[in-house]
Structures are given as structure tokens and as C-alpha cells.
Specification:
globular; about 400 residues; mainly alpha
Length: about 400
């Protein structure tokens, strides 16, 4: 629901591309500044309890946004009258920015706990299948069920999707609380407790010393930065270049939902058939081609189909790489190393979002607004070309299988 509600709310508050992109920057900034401490916390606490606490916190923060939007509802234009927006509603914009920052911090700890709890629930050989199923369901909920509901609720009133969104966080907290057992990292209780800084340094050293996960993290970080270049201002691209309203904006994401469901289920089979290395190369190559096509042919049916293909490729990348990390990272370091990995992978997202807003702002000084909004997609395509060349030689099937084999030999 927030996929539709937050961008549309931001575009009802301001039409400034820098301020629109700043919402995306603030949303992802915690992955840059809070990810590393969150990894230490994840290895120190019960991961299930951390997930419950963060969902409760996110529900409360979303409720604050809902109440703020409700209070300003009479001054906001209808979702189909955004061309009437002039200036910036500073008070509501500030509330959205602060709440988004805090929501992002809660998301960092929640998601890191979510990924590190998985090896405690399923066996190593089941990780790819389990991750694929979870992401399929998550993708359907996030991009197939949520956005249409968000659009419908948005047409009722700007505040309604935020109230419903808050309720889903509280419901999620209740469901996770029902999972039985304790989920703390295995630690040597006889060893003296290290300082927070020492534990953090241990996770950083492990990842930076790994010849496969280090380049993988850097490549993913640059991939995510490139994606955020166009996603940060996508609501403006959709409204002004594609010419769609809230309903078609939602329908476009159906492609991503279908692709996510398909990708999550076929990723293990694709990995076995093509090999892990070629599968990752396919994802990198798709990232170079698809944004360029959208920039040149910004018609909503084309974008819908290409979003679906991109989602399939993204799921293939995620299933292979996350399952690999869950397999080869030592259990007592999983939270910290995972957080360092995501520091690179997700920490680049606010930088990419800021660059996206800056690209639109700068190009608009020399060309028209239409070309400025298309330029972010072309810039992302160029970045992915470089990543394909760099990653093809480093993320090979032989290197991935060797990393898995090394863990098996150590265990035996």
C-alpha cells in the first residue's frame, strides 16, 4: 500500500524533484548509517523478539503519519488533481521525512533479523526453496495485493491507506510472536563478552576478507544505487512522461508482482540449469537493457512487462546470493556479516536516490522536463553495463561452489 500512498502523498505536498527524491533518500539512509550497529544487535538479541518489536514500532510511526495526513486532508488536492499543486506544505513534509527516517531504522533491524533467523528454521539444503517461497509471497503481497488496495483507499481519502498500513504492522507483529522457540545466535558463553565495537569489527573483517562475498556486496550496492536513480522520481516519471493516474500507476506494478512470484519459484531451478554464475550474469545484463528500453518507450504496458522481467531477474539474484550467505557465513557471525554486506548493498540506495533527483534537476536546466525524467533510466543502464563486465569474471559458478565446498570441508 505504501508503494502507492507515500509517493502520491509526496507529490501532493511538493512537485520539486529534489524534495521528492529526498523522501527516498531518507527512507534508505538508515541502511547506510544504522546497518552495521543493527548487525551487532541482531547477534546479541532474540531475533524473533526483535522482529516483533520493530513491527510494533513501525505500526506506531505509520499511525502518526496517518493522523498527520488526516489533519491536513482538507488542504490536499485530489489524487487526480496533482497538477494544481503549487509550493510545498512544509509542516506535513517535515512529519513525513522524520517518520520515514525512523521507519527506515526500524526496517533495518527487522529485515536483518528476518534474514538471520532463517537458518534456525530450515535446513541448509532447503534455504533456496524457503527463500524463494517467502519472496514469492512477499512479492505478491507487496506489489500485487497491496498497491491496488492502496489505490482504492487513496481515492477514498489520502489518510485511509496509512491507517490500514499501520494495522498491517501490528498484525505482522502478532503473527511473528506466535512462532515458537528462541532464536539467539550461538555464542560461547564461557568466553568474555566483547565490546560493541570489537564485535562490529569482527563482522567487517570477515566480509572484507572473503574473496567472493566482498565483490558481490559491492556489485549489489551499485545495482541498487542505479535502480534508485529512477525509482526516486518514478512517481513524477509516471505522471508526466507515462501520463498515468493512481490506478494505472498501480497496474504497472502488477508486472513486478507476477515476475516476483514467478522468479521466487523458478530461481532454484534456473540456478541448477544455468549455473549460479550465468544466472547472476543474466540479472546484471537485464539491468542494463530494461531501463534503457523504458526510457525510450515509456508506455505503461511496456513498463508493466519490463517490470515483470526485471522482478524475475531480481528474484533469481536474491535467492542465489542470500541462500549462499546463509550457508557460508558462520552462525555466530551471521547477523554482523549480513549487516556489513547490506551496508554496501543497501547503503548505496540513498546515494542513488539523491543522484536521481540531482540528475533530473541538472538536466532540466539544459533540456525539457521530459528528457530530464528519462535521463535517470539511461544513467542506470550505463551503470549496469559496467557491472556486467566487472561481475562476469568475479561471480562464476566455480567460485560460488568452491565457497560452499570450503564450508562443508570445515564442518567435516
Amino acid at each position: 500500500m505504501s508503494t502507492v500512498a507515500y509517493p502520491w502523498l509526496a507529490s501532493a505536498i511538493t512537485r520539486n524533484p529534489i524534495l521528492i527524491a529526498l523522501v527516498a533518500v531518507v527512507q534508505r539512509l538508515p541502511w547506510l548509517v544504522f546497518t552495521l550497529p543493527a548487525g551487532v544487535i541482531t547477534d546479541r538479541v532474540d531475533r524473533r523478539k526483535a522482529m516483533v518489536s520493530m513491527d510494533v514500532l513501525r505500526g506506531a510511526l505509520t499511525l502518526v503519519v496517518a493522523l498527520a495526513v488526516l489533519g491536513a486532508q482538507g488542504t490536499l488536492p485530489a489524487p487526480d488533481e496533482l497538477d494544481l499543486v503549487t509550493g510545498t506544505r512544509t509542516g506535513l513534509y517535515t512529519i513525513v521525512i522524520v517518520a520515514t527516517l525512523l521507519l527506515g531504522m526500524a526496517e533495518v533491524l527487522r529485515d536483518n533479523s528476518n534474514q538471520t533467523i532463517m537458518p534456525n528454521i530450515v535446513k541448509p539444503h532447503q534455504l533456496e526453496k524457503a527463500n524463494g517461497r517467502i519472496w514469492s509471497i512477499e512479492g505478491v503481497a507487496n506489489t500485487f495485493a497491496g498497491p491496488p488496495l492502496g489505490s482504492i483507499l487513496l481515492l477514498v481519502a489520502f489518510s485511509v491507506p496509512f491507517f490500514v498500513d499501520a494495522g498491517t504492522f501490528f498484525l505482522a507483529a502478532g503473527l511473528v510472536a506466535l512462532i515458537p522457540g528462541t532464536f539467539r545466535a550461538d555464542r560461547d558463553e564461557t568466553a568474555p563478552r566483547q565490546s560493541f565495537r570489537a564485535e562490529l569489527s569482527e563482522g567487517v573483517r570477515w566480509l572484507m576478507g572473503h574473496p567472493l562475498l566482498r565483490p558481490m556486496a559491492i556489485i549489489l550496492g551499485l545495482m541498487n544505487a542505479a535502480s534508485m536513480m529512477y525509482l526516486a522520481t518514478f512517481v513524477l516519471f509516471a505522471q508526466e512522461v507515462m501520463g498515468v493516474g493512481p490506478l494505472l500507476f498501480t497496474i504497472v506494478f502488477f508486472g513486478a508482482a507476477i515476475g516476483g512470484f514467478v522468479g521466487g519459484n523458478v530461481a532454484p531451478a534456473v540456478s541448477r540449469r544455468l549455473g549460479s554464475g550465468p544466472s547472476l550474469a543474466l540479472a546484471l545484463g537485464g539491468g542494463a537493457v530494461l531501463p534503457a528500453v523504458i526510457a525510450l518507450v515509456p508506455e505503461w504496458p511496456v513498463v508493466l512487462v519490463l517490470f515483470g522481467i526485471n522482478s524475475v531477474l531480481g528474484m533469481i539474484w536474491n535467492v542465489i546470493t542470500v541462500s549462499l550467505r546463509q550457508t557460508i557465513i558462520p552462525a555466530h557471525l551471521l547477523g554482523r556479516v549480513n549487516s556489513v554486506y547490506r551496508f554496501f548493498a543497501w547503503g548505496m540506495m540513498p546515494i542513488g536516490a539523491a543522484l536521481g533527483g540531482l540528475i533530473v534537476f541538472v538536466v532540466e536546466r539544459f533540456a525539457d522536463r521530459d528528457l530530464a525524467l528519462r535521463a535517470t533510466w539511461l544513467a542506470a543502464a550505463i551503470v549496469h553495463v559496467g557491472l556486467f563486465v566487472f561481475g562476469r569474471a568475479r561471480l562464476t559458478t566455480d567460485k560460488i561452489e568452491a565457497a560452499r565446498a570450503a564450508v562443508t570441508m570445515t564442518a567435516s
